[in-house]
Amino acid sequence: MTDPVLTIQALSYRYPNGEAAARGIDFTLNPGEKHGIIGPNGAGKSTLLQLVTGLLKPDGGTVRVGDLVMDKSHRAAIRRKLGLLFQNSDDQLFSLTVRDDVAFGPLNMGMTPEQAEEKTLGALATAGIVHLADRAPHTLSGGEKKSAALASILSMDPEILLLDEPTAGLDPRSRRELIRTLRELAHPMMVISHDLDFIWDTCSRVSLLHEGRIALTGEASSVLRDRELLERYGMELPLQLQRCEWCGGKNDN
Ligand SMILES: Nc1ncnc2c1ncn2[C@@H]1O[C@H](COP(=O)(O)OP(=O)(O)OP(=O)(O)O)[C@@H](O)[C@H]1O
Ligand SMILES: [Mg+2]
After folding, report:
1. Which residues surround ligand 2, an ion (CB under 5 A)?
2. What gap in Å lies between CA 250 and CA 96, rounded to an integer?
3. Taking the complete model, does pTM exceed 0.70, yes or no?
4. Using CB atoms within 10 A of its CB, is residue 218 exposed (0-12), middle (13-18) or buried (19+)?
5. In this structure, are residues 62 and 10 in contact, taking their beta carbons and an 8 Å threshold?
6. Which atom of ligand 1 is nearest to 50's Cα?
7. Which atom from ligand 1 is nearest to the alpha carbon of 48?
8. All domains of the chain, ordered by start, with CATH?
9. Longest dimension (CA), the chain
10. What is the 3-state secondary structure (H, E, C) of the chain?
């Protein structure tokens, strides 16, 4: 068994107003694993991402990425390993052109312009938006912005992708394209989403977060098919399973 790429142990965090948003979270992400994090509003999903990326400092517990334990001395090194896709793409795009946004990370990491150009072209191709390279980010549609934001992360060669509600605001076609792109990526990923159909289409494992704790972890093919369990936590079966509750097997991912 290979070592996990991300290990979270007994992670706890209380906001200054006293709200305990993480109450002893244990979680592991294995190499190549696409792991969905689901849970009702206020469960602590966004807080968890902020703890993983070091934006919030936990009151207790540890976050380990590979061999590195998140602390002051490793925070920068860990951040370089993590590619965080913000829920709002506008928070991630700030340059005059998409190409500049995608090249920003590589140049900032000290690559030569030629190296950065190569990374940029590769990331644009992976995200399927080579044709948008010279567009101004603010002129893009929501789906195009999401792809540009994804390219701006991929150009830095992250080891782990962290996606916060990636389908929010996408139309069906953009959503399908994002699903296709993510399925082709080999990166391990933590995918936070209320879109259980999207989780079903992309993730092999699922953890359910509830009141700041992981209530359960399991195979996506069993957790997302458990109507009674999902309803107990205020969620519903993925629509594609509601339409086809007699379906035998999970889709071929
Ligand atoms: N800045 C803050 N100050 C105080 N409490 C906060 C803050 N941010 C979040 N909380 C509280 O922490 C808990 C977890 O919030 P969090 O945003 O992590 O939930 P979530 O699972 O991402 O919810 P959603 O599905 O609505 O995005 C909630 O009770 C929330 O009210
Ligand atoms: Mg949230």
Report:
1. 45-46
2. 43
3. yes
4. middle
5. yes
6. 18
7. 18
8. 6-242 (3.40.50.300)
9. 55
10. CCCCCEEEEEEEEECCCCCEEEEEEEEEECCCCEEEEECCCCCCHHHHHHHHCCCCCCCEEEEEECCEECCCCCHHHHHHHEEEECCCHHHCCCCCCHHHHHHHHHHHCCCCHHHHHHHHHHHHHHCCCHHHCCCCHHHCCHHHHHHHHHHHHHCCCCCEEEEECCCCCCCHHHHHHHHHHHHHCCCCEEEECCCHHHHHHHCCEEEEEECCEEEEEEEHHHHCCCHHHHHHCCCCCCHHHHCCCCCCCCCCC
Q: For residue range 33-77, list pLDDT tens digits in order.
A: 999 999 999 999 999 999 999 999 999 999 999 999 999 999 999
Cα–Cα distances (Å) from 17 to 10, 49, 61, 209, in that order, read 21, 19, 20, 21
Q: C-alpha distances in angstroms, 42 versus 38, 169, 245? A: 11, 20, 29
At how many degrees (to 10) do helices 98-108 and 142-154 cross? 20
Residue 130 clears pLDDT 90, i.e. is over it: yes
pLDDT over 90 (residue 178): yes
Question: What are the Cα distances from residue 24, in Å, to 48, 83, 198, 215, 253?
Answer: 11, 24, 27, 11, 31
- Residue 102: C-alpha distances to residues 67, 84, 178, 183 (Å): 28, 14, 17, 21
Ligand 1 pocket check: which of 12, 25, 41 to mutate, most ligand atoms within 8 Å of Cβ? 41
